[in-house]
Structure formats: C-alpha cells, structure tokens
C-alpha cells in the first residue's frame, strides 16, 4: 500500500458568496469575525476567492474597490475582507493561500494599495503575508457619520514601488 499525500489545496474564484457559504466555513455564530463590539456597518465584497476540500468550502477572502482620501488626494484602494478559514483547518496555510490569491487579483484592478482591517491578534498573520500596519487613525463612513476605525488598519502595495502616502486617511465609504 502506498501512502499518498492529499492534493494540495488550490484557490478558486467564486462566482458568488452568500451567508450560507460563510456558515459552511466558520459556522453560524452571531459574531463570526469577532468584531461585533466595534458596532460597525460593513460593505459586502464584490470579488470572492475560496478553497474547497472534498466539496466543502473551507476558506474565503473577498475584495472591494473603495474611494479613499489620503491627505488632500482622492484615490482608490482595494479592500480585503471577509477572510475566513474553517476552525478545524487553521494553521495549515489556507489563509496565506486565499489572501495571496485575492491580492494577486487586486494587483490587476488598478489601485496602488490594498487595505484591510483586523483584530490585533491577527496583525502578526498579516505581517507574515507582507502587510504593514498603518499607525494612524483611519476615518470610515457609518450610517450616523464618520467614525475612527477601532480595528487595526493594514496596507500592502499592489504595484512595484507603491508606498503609503502621508496625510490623514478617510475611507469615503463603509468599511469592507
């Protein structure tokens, strides 16, 4: 009998991603991303990437192009969000695979920077994936008006030589 390794997981672009898909990955928790206490309203993502194993969706990352004001300059960023990995499969590199595939696609979308918001315990994971911490407040829109993002903000260059510009940062939309 030969020992065969299971096939390496690969990322696919998902044509749709619904609440049922999220539940398939991380269960039906009232606060699946641990950010409900931030009290924020979030935008759905438009582009979705996932990993399936034995027919089950086990990882996801989503993208959304958003308007942003940095200093006096209006531009766009590609927001990364909805990153999820099945609890029973964490620590196996699936987040790296799905986020990397999403960022590779983000590089084709035009903006120079990727942006994400995360809980402080996840900062080391994203740093290992090449993201950098933005050490300043970021204002985001909410139904009641702009608020300071209470989560950590991280960015990554989407084109060669892109650095984060100086200046106050205001996301001109709900966060992703």
Secondary structure: helix percent: 10-25%
What amount of the residues lies in strands? Answer: 35-45%
* Poorly predicted sequence stretches spanning 5 or more consecutive residues: none
Shape descriptor: globular
Mind describing the biggest β-sheet? 10 strands, mixed
Number of helices: 3
Our Rg estimate from Cα atoms comes to 17 Å
Question: Can you describe this structure?
Answer:
A hairpin with a 2-residue loop joins strand 3 and strand 4 (73-85). The chain has helices spanning 19-26, 94-106, 123-128; strands at residues 11-14, 47-53, 56-70, 73-85, 113-118, 132-134, 138-140, 147-148, 152-157, 169-171. The chain is globular and about 60 Å long. 15% of the residues lie in helices and 35% in strands. The protein contains three helices and ten strands; from the N terminus they run E-H-E-E-E-H-E-H-E-E-E-E-E. With 176 residues, the protein is α+β, with helices and mostly antiparallel strands. It starts with 10 loop residues before the first strand and ends in a 5-residue tail after the last strand. Strands 1, 2, 3, 4, 5, 6, 7, 8, 9 and 10 form a ten-stranded mixed beta sheet that branches.
What are the main properties of this structure?
176 residues, globular, single chain, 3 helices
Architecture blueprint of SSEs:
Layout lengths: L10 E4 L4 H8 L20 E7 L2 E15 L2 E13 L8 H13 L6 E6 L4 H6 L3 E3 L3 E3 L6 E2 L3 E6 L11 E3 L5
Parallel strand pairs: 4-5, 7-10
Antiparallel strand pairs: 1-2, 2-3, 3-4, 3-10, 5-9, 6-9, 7-8
Please provide a brief summary of the model.
The protein contains three helices and ten strands; from the N terminus they run βαβββαβαβββββ.
């Amino acid at each position: 009998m030969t020992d065969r390794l299971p096939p390496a997981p690969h990322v696919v672009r998902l044509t749709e991603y619904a609440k049922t898909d999220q539940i398939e990955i991380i269960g039906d928790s009232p606060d699946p991303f641990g950010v409900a206490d931030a009290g924020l309203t979030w935008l759905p993502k438009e582009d979705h990437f996932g990993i399936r194993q034995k027919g089950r969706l086990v990882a996801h990352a989503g993208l959304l192009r958003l308007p942003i004001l940095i200093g006096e300059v209006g531009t766009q960023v590609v927001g990364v969000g909805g990153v999820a990995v099945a609890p029973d499969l964490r620590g196996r590199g699936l987040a790296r695979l799905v986020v990397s595939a999403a960022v590779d696609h983000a590089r084709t979308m035009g903006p120079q920077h990727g942006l994400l918001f995360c809980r402080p315990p996840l900062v080391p994971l994203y740093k290992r994936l090449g993201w950098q911490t933005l050490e300043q407040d970021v204002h985001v829109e909410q139904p009641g008006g702009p608020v300071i993002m209470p989560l950590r903000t991280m960015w990554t260059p989407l084109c060669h030589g892109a650095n984060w510009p100086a200046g106050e940062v205001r996301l001109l939309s709900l966060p992703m």
